[in-house]
Amino acid sequence: MKRVQTGVLAGLSVLAAAGSVQASFLPVFGGTAPAGANTAFNYNLVFSTSGGAAPVERLETGDFLTIYDIPGFVSATAPAGFSLSTQNSGINGPGTAPADDAGLPNVTFTYTGAPVGSDTVFTGAQITSNFGFVGSDNFTSRTHAFPAGTELGHIGITAVPAVPEPGALIFLSALPLALLRRR
What is the pLDDT, as a whole number, of residue 177? Predict the structure, then answer.
């Protein structure tokens, strides 16, 4: 089960958005939104070539980003220029070893467009879960070195749906009663 995280995830998203991450392909968590009885987890898929004048990486057709271990998975939406797949094991970036629970689905966004050699943000990635708590888990991705074309792997942590811990459920269910007693 995932632990519910808050400030750390927000800090990671701010660092990634601020450009402190060099040459990578990563998901930047954009928050949650109600999706009927479920919760949508919104992401921007951010490709950064290097942060410098000359690119060191390139996003090529078939490169991908996988977000691991989605409890309560309902559906997912890929941004324009991407296909989507789900699987319970992998798909891992080259040379990465993410923690992967084979009992939980992973979501992979695979790039289908023309090669990209400049910093690009792909909006519209979404994972919907029947859990609304925010936790953290691994992501991995694959890009290519520029100009050599060697496959590169990236690994990191991103926000994912989380199952609340039993203690949190007891606290949350007792909270309305405590508020009524106080009045």
Answer: 52
